[in-house]
Design brief:
With 389 residues, this protein is of the alpha/beta class. The protein is built from 14 helices and 15 strands. It has helices at 3-8, 29-45, 47-53, 55-69, 82-92, 109-122, 139-145, 168-177, 197-200, 266-282, 284-303, 330-339, 353-358, 376-388; strands spanning 17-18, 76-79, 100-104, 125-129, 150-156, 181-185, 204-208, 220-224, 242-245, 249-252, 308-310, 320-325, 342-343, 345-347, 365-369. The longest helix is centred in the C-terminal third of the chain and has 20 residues, at 284-303. The protein is globular, with a radius of gyration of 21 Å. The model has no long low-confidence stretch (mean pLDDT 98). The structure holds pyridoxal-5'-phosphate. Pyridoxal-5'-phosphate (PLP) binds at residues 81-83, 108, 110, 156, 159-160, 185, 187-188, 208, 220.
């Protein structure tokens, strides 16, 4: 990969050392140009004419998103973010009292509060599989937890709070063997690492635009396998797929797009599409290899500082690097780094309660989430700053 060109394409890299890609990444210039040109023209011709003129390009979004995850274009719906996509599935499954959601301990807050909400409103049960002592997902515990009441396995692929990567393919094999619906929170993984819905065997996946996909804020997407559509009942309808007939009748097209609203920012959809095109052109295997190399380097360097503990558990790790410096609060470190134009974040219990609690990180940790456009020199600067902090 031509890193110089990639950084030239990414204007933000001139201003900041950006290690907050698990929060919100930096956009490529071509995406910004597409969005601003669209908005300029839209201001002249009006939104509806503009949309009609660009409909073919807008439709390309579905092809590109599908290509990235080895799905079919009609298995993709555009959503406002990953949580919305995830909830379309959670609230679309007609759970009966006593049915069970099996989940992991690395769930994001928005996932878990909705499991709890379903427990309180519908009487479902939550079964959380505890990780093995080394932080890996416990596949044997999952096998033991399967019983006829289990309706859904909902698993976070990569958490907000560490660099561990869950074995989603092995979990998919277990789900399939028992004919259980399978939802993957791929908010931090799609765009970061190769994600193939056929290989993983998931029925549903949720993604967001602004993180590792480097797209605009306010967009995400939902994947629903065509063969799993009949398992979902949408909680609200939109005339994209719901056709109003006389005599209080509705004809509903049963397709993934039934979770999509007609009204959205088409400028941003084109920007999101461009972000995915850029990634497809670079090749996800290439970008992923670089993320693995850079993040291993970062862990190695941080580990060499005596007062620093790198926290990422598990066997398979990704670009999210979490650590603490002895006796210093992670938010203090994050602010200190920001003064040096090094953008990291602090991962805190509000977003990943069970994971951080079980890892004994009640105060959270500093999080440096690395992307392929980062460099070893930037990591060296981060490490030097941590030594001084
Ligand atoms: C693992 C994980 N899942 C889901 C979400 C929610 O994504 P969004 O804010 O796009 O709804 C996040 C956000 O940080 C996340 O880290």
């Amino acid at each position: 990969m031509n890193i110089q060109k990639i950084r030239k394409d990414t204007p933000g890299t001139n201003h900041i050392k950006h290690f907050n890609n698990a929060g919100c990444s930096l956009a490529v210039q071509s995406q910004i140009d597409i969005i601003t040109n669209y908005l300029q023209e839209e201001a002249i011709v009006g939104g509806y004419l503009m949309q009609a003129k660009h409909q073919n390009e807008i439709n390309q979004f579905y092809q590109r998103a599908a290509q990235l995850i080895n799905a079919k274009p009609d298995e993709i719906a555009i959503t406002g973010n990953a949580s919305e996509a995830f909830n379309h599935v959670l609230y679309g499954i007609p759970f009966e009292k006593g049915e069970v959601i099996i989940t992991s301990e690395i769930e994001y807050s928005n996932n878990f509060v909705n499991y709890i909400n379903l427990k309180n409103t519908k009487g479902i049960e939550i079964e959380m599989i505890r990780n093995l002592p080394n932080g890996d997902f416990d596949l044997e515990a999952l096998k033991k937890a399967i019983h006829p009441k289990v309706k859904l396995i909902a698993i976070t692929h990569v958490p907000t709070s560490s660099g561990v990567v869950a074995p989603v393919k092995a979990i998919g094999e277990i789900a399939k063997a028992h004919n259980i619906l399978y939802l993957v929170d791929s908010c931090q993984s799609i765009g970061q690492l190769p994600f193939d819905v056929e290989e993983i065997g998931c029925d549903f996946a949720s993604a967001t635009g602004r993180k590792y996909l480097r797209g605009p804020r306010g967009l995400g997407f939902l994947y629903v396998r065509n063969s799993a559509l009949s398992q979902l009942v949408p909680k609200s309808l939109d005339n994209v797929t719901a056709h109003w007939k006389l005599d209080e009748k509705v004809d509903l097209d049963i397709k993934t797009k039934m979770f999509e609203h007609w009204e959205k920012s088409y400028a941003m959809v084109l920007g999101f599409s461009e972000a995915i095109r850029y990634l497809l052109d670079l090749g996800i295997e290439n970008t992923w290899n670089r993320i693995v190399e850079l993040s291993s380097y970062a862990r190695e360097q941080l580990n060499s500082i005596p007062e620093v503990t790198v926290h990422d558990p598990g066997t398979n790790k990704c670009g999210i690097v979490t650590f603490n410096k002895k006796d210093v609060d992670p938010l203090t470190i994050q602010k200190y780094l920001m003064e040096k134009k090094i953008n990291t974040s602090a991962t805190l219990p509000f977003s990943s309660m069970t994971d951080l609690h079980h890892r004994g990180l009640e105060n959270g940790a500093v999080r440096a989430s690395i992307h392929y456009f980062n460099t070893r020199e930037e990591i060296d600067a981060l490490v030097e700053a941590i030594k001084e902090a």
